Amino acid sequence: MTRRPGFPAKLDSGPSRGAAPRPNAPQPSRSALDRTLPPGGLGLDSQAVRTRMVEKLAAQGISDARVLGAMGAVERHRFVDTALITQAYEDTSLPIGLGQTISKPNVVARMIELLLGGRTDAQGRLGRVLEIGTGCGYQAAVLARVASEVYSIERLRGLHDKARENLRTFRLANVHLLFGDGMVGYAKGAPYAGIIAAAGGQSVPQAWIDQLAVGGRIVAPTVMADGKQALVVLEKTPHEMKQCVLEAVHFVPLKSGIA
Ligand code: SAH
């Protein structure tokens, strides 16, 4: 069982746990997925596989029942391409096209657990959340189960469209997909109870801090002075931003502008 520090523990480095970019991996088409899956997709089998994945997440130290429940419910195999379906529930990052990756289940669960930080509203949910880097839409679907509203921004048109397509059948009324540069946040949805970044920048943009509610948290992979990425958690108090640097991670870079 892996023991990991919780917020506000402080670590300078740790084992590598993040999503490794695999820019050159082959990308089978999405429609091939529908042709290959038996009617009803992976069906009941996929629930059994997810249950095993959740047991593994719990053994690795994820303890928030809301996070484990959401990870057990969202069909990760619907977000990856045909050739990768058999790996959908393994603890591995996977290519999603345009040189980007979907993080390991363990990293997604860990970051959402940190984002929640034990905070909930009367319904046991976090309030409005902003996700930077929609990618294939998987993490947005998980967030939709633990937050009241999810605003998710993607800077690559191709992935924004792909996420829209992937999420269509899930009919998540509380997920709002946005095409744009997430480095400037999304002021219209502010203030946010949580902001979660799926790409690593040199620092946490001021816009995210400005758009965070008091009591809210930012969870973001960030490049440290040694040039390596670490998971950073920022918490806004009425008087200051509290920062905590956790384990080393490997996310795709946070880039400015759209493409
Ligand atoms: N959460 C995603 C992971 C996507 S990988 C999922 O579940 O699939 C990170 C994504 O961040 C990439 O798609 C990349 O294009 C995007 N990204 C990088 N910089 C960005 C920015 N400034 N604004 C919005 N998206 C950005």
Automatic annotation (TrEMBL):
GO terms for cellular component: cytoplasm. It is found in: Cytoplasm. One of its GO terms (biological process) is protein repair. The keyword S-adenosyl-L-methionine applies. Residues 1-42 are annotated as: Disordered. One of its GO terms (molecular function) is protein-L-isoaspartate (D-aspartate) O-methyltransferase activity. Its EC number is 2.1.1.77. The keyword Phosphoprotein does not apply. Keywords: Cytoplasm, Methyltransferase, S-adenosyl-L-methionine, Transferase. It is an enzyme of class 2 (transferase). NCBIfam families: pimt, PRK00312.1. PANTHER family: PROTEIN-L-ISOASPARTATE O-METHYLTRANSFERASE, PROTEIN-L-ISOASPARTATE(D-ASPARTATE) O-METHYLTRANSFERASE. Belongs to the methyltransferase superfamily. L-isoaspartyl/D-aspartyl protein methyltransferase family. This is Protein-L-isoaspartate O-methyltransferase. It comes from Caenimonas aquaedulcis.
